[in-house]
Amino acid sequence: RDLTVRKRAEARVAHLAFHDALTQLPNRLLFNDRLAVAITQAQRTGMALATLYLDLDRFKVINDSLGHSAGDRLLCKVAERLRTCVRETDTLARLGGDEFIMLVQSISSEADALRVARKILAAMREPFPLDGRELFVTTSIGVSIYPADGEDAETLIHNADTALYRAKELGSDNAQLYTPAMNTKAPRRTRACVSV
């Protein structure tokens, strides 16, 4: 009996090491590992893959007006809805706060990645029932494609994040593909943040 309890506790600790405690989605650590494995597979097969970086629009307003507990329940509902937008072979993870990231494997072009992004945008526009009311939440998405936008996990995630900032600049509730020209704006944004 003691051994069973110990094994169960060890399994729980192992799960928590690689999953977000709130949504039970993979966390950053597990996502990075799966992305690295997917890149290795893509190198062998010659297929592309996409990294989609998602951020909820105006989530802070919900947290501030309804409280963090309601915000947490909304994040769980968002995670459930995002799960319906991914295939078995893809990975959806929560990075923290209101940021999610998705790995879409075996795509043939950036059009495939944009199709997934449009599906997510449409799904997120549907109201979320919460505590007897309907909440409307949209998301912004930045997309990077392997190998065109990076050949390692860190670069792909960084470039998807850069594209996400561009989507936010354009008014939210949209998806933007990464382009190298976006990097010329990133240093200005960083300097502006530092000087404020």
Sum up the structure in keywords.
alpha+beta; 5-stranded mixed beta sheet; two-stranded antiparallel sheet; 7 helices; disordered C terminus
Order of H and E elements? HHEHHEEHEEEHEH
Largest sheet: 5 strands, mixed
% residues in beta strands? 15-25%
Low-pLDDT segments, ≥5 res: 187-196
Give the total of beta strands: 7
Describe what this molecule looks like in 3D.
The protein is 54% helix and 21% strand. It is α+β, with helices and mostly antiparallel strands and 196 residues long. The chain has a five-stranded mixed beta sheet, sandwiched between helices. A two-stranded antiparallel ribbon has the order 4-5. A hairpin with a 2-residue loop joins strand 2 (91-96) and strand 3. Helix 3 crosses helix 4 (68-83).
Draw up the topology in text:
Blueprint: H1 2-18, H2 28-45, E1 48-56, H3 59-66, H4 68-83, E2 91-96, E3 99-107, H5 110-125, E4 128-130, E5 133-135, E6 139-146, H6 153-169, E7 175-177, H7 182-195
Parallel strand pairs: 6-7
Antiparallel strand pairs: 1-3, 1-6, 2-3, 4-5
Helix pairs in contact: 3-4
How would you summarize what this structure contains?
By secondary structure, the chain is α+β, with helices and mostly antiparallel strands. The chain has 7 helices and 7 strands, in the order ααβααββαβββαβα. Strands 2-3-1-6-7 form a 5-stranded mixed sheet, sandwiched between helices. A two-stranded antiparallel sheet has the order 4-5.
